[in-house]
């Protein structure tokens, strides 16, 4: 489920399991009956929810002993690695984030604090917040630039000043290529991310 029809179109375009259904909707108004859901998950999304309304809905739709799992990543400590220039690449990446900081939505801070407030608001006694799980991914420079372009802060900046936003993107891309001493955007680098997870189980 997603509020964006474009996101749903992307999901439907991927060949997946036949028992998966995609639909448009919000986390605050789940189209499920009371006590009917075994597992409720959200990935890199819960920081955008209306906290109180979502938790009320989760409590309503989950079966007794049903589980809620909210996962995400904190971009504060992301690192890039490529040969011996990882520190320079990471510095460029953080510079972009700093440039976009004035355009960053307050909700992103909720993500960066690993849903601490949302976790505290969960009334289920059986709950856990796992704050640090490191994972490494291989990502092409092309896809990394595409990822930066999806940031809400970049999209806000782009709406306000399309040319400057595009210049920032191209300049960043050129800097990455220069530091890596490559010309192909398909060159892969290692991307180190820090994940977190909030788990909770509805009482019997």
Distance between the amino and carboxyl termini? 26 Å
SSE topology string: HEHEHHHEHHHE
Number of strands: 4
CATH superfamily: Vaccinia Virus protein VP39
The best one-word shape is elongated
Oligomer: single chain
Radius of gyration: 19 Å
The biggest sheet, with number of strands, parallel, antiparallel or mixed sense and barrel status, is:
4 strands, mixed
Question: What CATH architecture would you give?
Answer: 3-Layer(aba) Sandwich
User: Strands across the major sheet, in which order?
Assistant: 1-2-4-3
The fold-level CATH name is: Rossmann fold
Helix share bin = 40-55%
Percentage of β-strand residues: 25-35%
Mean of residue pLDDT values: 93
Overall structural class, as computed from helix and strand content, comes to alpha+beta
- What's the helix count? 8
CATH level-1 class: Alpha Beta
- Low-confidence sequence ranges: none
């Amino acid at each position: 489920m997603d509020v964006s029809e474009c996101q749903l179109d992307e999901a439907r375009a991927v060949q997946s399991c036949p028992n998966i259904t995609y639909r448009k909707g919000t986390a605050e108004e789940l189209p499920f009956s009371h006590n009917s859901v075994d597992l409720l998950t959200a990935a890199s999304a819960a920081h955008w929810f209306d906290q109180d309304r979502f938790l009320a809905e989760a409590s309503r739709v989950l079966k007794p002993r049903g589980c809620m799992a909210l996962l995400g990543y904190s971009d504060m400590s992301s690192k890039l690695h490529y040969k011996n220039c990882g520190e320079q690449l990471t510095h460029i990446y953080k510079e972009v984030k700093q440039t976009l900081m004035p355009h960053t939505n307050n909700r992103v801070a909720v993500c960066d604090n690993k849903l601490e407030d949302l976790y505290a608001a969960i009334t289920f006694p059986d709950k856990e917040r796992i704050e640090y799980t490191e994972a490494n991914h291989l990502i092409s420079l092309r896809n990394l630039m595409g990822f930066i372009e999806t940031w809400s802060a970049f999209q806000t900046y782009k709406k306000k000043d399309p040319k400057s936003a595009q210049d920032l993107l191209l300049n960043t891309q050129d800097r990455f290529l220069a530091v890596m001493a490559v010309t192909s955007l398909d060159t892969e680098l290692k991307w180190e991310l820090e994940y977190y997870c909030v788990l909770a189980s509805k009482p019997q």
